[in-house]
């Protein structure tokens, strides 16, 4: 997406962006989060934190 590609229309661009966001939050591992996905980290944080009610 950052290589200067183009989309046939706005609908296709929105679809590709939503797929990327879903991948980034659900599957991609982040070193700053202990190599967990953001979704997994958030779930784990909510269940173990005293400060954030689950």
UniProtKB/TrEMBL annotation:
InterPro entries named in the record: Integrase_cat-core (IPR001584)
A Pfam family that the UniProt record links to this protein: rve_3
Domain of life: Bacteria
Domain Integrase catalytic: 5-38
Protein name: Integrase core domain-containing protein
């Amino acid at each position: 997406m950052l290589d200067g590609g183009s989309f046939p229309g706005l609908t296709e661009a929105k679809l590709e962006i939503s797929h990327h966001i879903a991948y980034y939050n659900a599957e991609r591992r982040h070193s700053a989060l202990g190599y967990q996905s953001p979704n997994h980290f958030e779930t784990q944080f909510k269940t173990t934190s005293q400060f954030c009610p689950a």
